Amino acid sequence: MADINVDILIIGAGPTGLGAAKRLNHINGPSWLIIDANEKAGGLASTDVTPEGFLYDVGGHVIFSHYKYFDDCIDEALPKEDDWYTHQRISYVRYKGLWVPYPFQNNISMLPKEDQVKCIDGLIDAAMASRVATTKPKDFDEWILRTCGEGVADIFMRPYNYKVWAVPTTKMQCQWLGERVAAPDVKLVTKNVILNKVAGNWGPNATFRFPARDGTGGIWIAVSDTLPKEQKRYGQKGEVTKVDAQKKMVTLKDGTTIGYGKLINTMAVDHLVEKMGSQELVKLSKGLFYSSTHVIGVGIRGERPERIGDKCWLYFPEDNCPFYRATIFSNYSPYNQPQADAKLPTLYHADGSKPKSSDAKEGPYWSIMLEVSQSSMKPVDEANLLKDCIQGLINTEMIKAEDEIVSTYHRKFDHGYPTPSLEREGVLKELLPKLQDMDIWSRGRFGSWRYEVGNQDHSFMLGVEAVDNIVCGAVELTLNYPDFVNSRQNTERRLVQSFYNAGSASANGVPVRPAPQA
């Protein structure tokens, strides 16, 4: 017998695991427990704080939602108006010393004339070719050519996407695109070029929310705090060392064993199958590709420069900097950096030169967060990456050589982006059902490996929908029909809905099926 027995065990307290736990707590049916190796909730949506008091998220996270249930849960966790800031996305692409409004392919009116001609040529050729095409694009590169043409492909789409994904666009499939990449309107682009006009905001995150305090990680700590303490097990006492799918038992680092009826796994699925010790599944998971992400933070003394202004996040396709994206993190909240009266010494100037004085001085302060990808197809000089990124900030005129650096941050996340590789669907269509046949629902950004439903709202709902599938047999729309959930307001589930408990199932048995009350 295991030391602890529950109907449903959740591995991981990131957005997906917390979504599952919130739903189980809401329906008040099967017994459950959530475990995580980290002391605090958040997973890949957590926030770090430097010794100097600068906050940095694990990559670029903002809150925009396709689901009312997600909204309900985070509003319950952070209910006050002053818990949040709402921002209009101000986003640009850096190209040839210019700030081109995002999305680049809709704003070639901002480019030098010779590049405008190259892009228009390609767009017209692509439009004509696509009218007679009888097959779907075979990969992401072909999708780019058919949609944007050779000019936009060479100037922006190919170099930028290589910097993001750390694999060439020819090695990626294109079913994931959906709302992620804007398809240009040739007539509108041409009209804007002639009239020298800028296209408006595009995409689901044109307006977004950000927590006033504690960064994105603060959201998930607050969500976790709404759950019963006795049903959470975080830190070393929640670290999984072995998953025995046959015995339906998980062993933790401290030796504790947990028996379960159903398992919702949100750790990376390649790590899961290793802990299961199944050579068949390990071999199958080798077909999944991912890139690592380096998050670099730079804290700077001084007023935010006018050239930076209210920019949110910025894209960098060129090779004059290692990062593909920069976020002006201090613009999201005044609490993302130390207050102006905090005294900090200058570490060095941006050009590497030492300051004349090592005395601590007051601010104000502002900050930039950078992201750099890495893979076997895109190596990175990790030892010099921070220095190279600061030089990249100078090269792109984000900062000046004489700027005072008061704080730096560098953290590598081995699993950063789940790559939509050509092989991905073939692997997932075999791997996920095999796991489910063993009563393991593997879900989440890396649990189910689908980037197109890897945002915070998607990830949370993958956990919610896994619970409803286990308990009621409901279809998991987010996992199986990404384009459908991304094209609508999903209002069917609400936190105010109530359930009655039809009696508790025995541990390791079939969970109860609570019915919603009218």
Give the number of helices: 13
Please compute the radius of gyration using only Cα atoms: 24 Å
| Uncertain ranges | 502-518
Percentage of residues in DSSP E strands: 15-25%
Explain this structure:
By secondary structure, the protein is of the alpha+beta class. Helix content is 30%, strand content 21%. The protein contains 13 helices and 21 strands. Strands 7-6-14-15-17-13-18-16 form an eight-stranded mixed beta sheet. Strands 1, 2, 9, 10, 11, 12 and 19 form a seven-stranded mixed beta sheet that branches. Strands 3-4 form a two-stranded antiparallel sheet. A hairpin with a 5-residue loop joins β3 and β4. The longest helix has 26 residues. The radius of gyration is 24 Å and the shape is globular. The two termini are 40 Å apart. The C terminus is likely disordered.
Ordered list of secondary-structure elements with their pairings:
Elements: E1 4-11, H1 15-27, E2 32-36, E3 47-49, E4 55-57, H2 68-77, E5 84-88, E6 91-95, E7 98-101, H3 113-132, H4 140-165, H5 186-195, E8 207-211, H6 215-225, E9 232-234, E10 240-244, E11 249-252, E12 257-265, H7 269-276, H8 279-285, E13 290-301, E14 313-315, E15 325-327, E16 348-349, E17 365-374, H9 385-395, E18 404-418, H10 424-437, E19 440-442, H11 456-472, H12 477-480, H13 482-486, E20 499-500, E21 515-516
Helix pairs in contact: 1-11, 2-6, 3-4, 3-5, 7-8
InterPro entries: FAD/NAD-bd_sf
Organism: Parathielavia hyrcaniae
Protein name: FAD/NAD(P)-binding domain-containing protein
